């Protein structure tokens, strides 16, 4: 009873007694073991005190035999607060719902803008984005972060060099740079074909122009292969030389392979968690399993909630914890060599166009050092070595 | 007369057995904290109460407390805490 919080919890009321025999009533109340406190005399026939709401019935019984009036002045504590709250619950619910609606609307997507794309690409992208959930009326926290969308879109559209994704409040902005198609104008302008690199000519196929080389010729970079000037010596015509010159070229590559490597394998066990974070406190709302993995990969996707244009300190985090096994593999020198060759070949293939073919490979040098295998490999490659070059006026006068 | 004899026996017993008087004799116990509080145990009821004067019934006689701005902080059947500026505490024997 001495506790203030106890009083607050039960709810108290301030009572005013009007009448001359206030003391007698107080005596009677305490004889009935009612708890009263803060007894104050206001004037000659007025006494104010506080008591628990639950004791009001006993007070009414006690004053029945006396000539006093009772006024209840003020209610305090939890029950009356609850009562007041219940009376105004409409407003509270309204405010609460309004806040939630604003938060929900602030986290939706209201605009998807694509810039720099051709109409059919734009149509295609809109479709792809819709599949990913990026559409008007979608939720931001259900889609990937901008980097993820960018990665997916770039992977899906071959014809696109670069896609910039920007999330601005509730609108997504995509900036597209398409791969340039070769210009028609360039094709038709008069030109020679010259060698791109050092090579031995293996084969050639000339559509237009006059070839000035024969098979087994050794050419240097910049050397004229197919002339764009055709016709008689005194009246030469300019044409756009076109053709394919296949030459044998050489590459040397150096590769290094670790003889022991560690690699991670996903075991397939994973653990998905969704949490709501308030500042540093995170409350799990989905996924409570507390499986602990020895080695793990964690993917985290964090969405900050917004209120209008401001970021709230609340965020929804999707976490995927994947179990991985770490394996160690030791290669024999022979295996390592094979692997190194594979790597080198792949690297090389990447660096030149698809038509190129590796016809021969020779290991020039091989060394094991600090647990690493070092290889120096030479490749013979057949590829198109032709490169367009404009016809320079002086050449004609020669 | 019987009451007086009872009291005499009680007093003698308390003295001989060395017992606390307030327990044995139904005396009030009054504790004061400076001029701020008076804590009265073993009272028998409130007689008059105003912001300058409080009169409390005891087992024998009355207790009169004088001062300013009195508020009864809490009151139970046998105890009460009085708050305010206490100036005088008087025993009144009829």
UniProtKB/TrEMBL annotation, chain A:
- The answer to whether keyword Transmembrane applies is yes
Q: Which Pfam families match?
A: YqfD
Q: Which domain of life is it from?
A: Bacteria
Which InterPro entries does the entry mention? Answer: YqfD (IPR010690)
Q: Which UniProt keywords apply?
A: Membrane, Transmembrane, Transmembrane helix
Annotated TM spans: 89-110
Indicate what this protein is called per its UniProt record: Sporulation protein YqfD
Source organism per entry reads Pallidibacillus pasinlerensis
Automatic annotation (TrEMBL), chain B:
The record ties this protein, via Gene3D superfamilies, to: 2.60.40.2000
**Which Pfam families is this protein grouped with?**
YabP
NCBIfam families linked to this entry: spore_yqfC
**What's the protein name?**
Sporulation protein YqfC
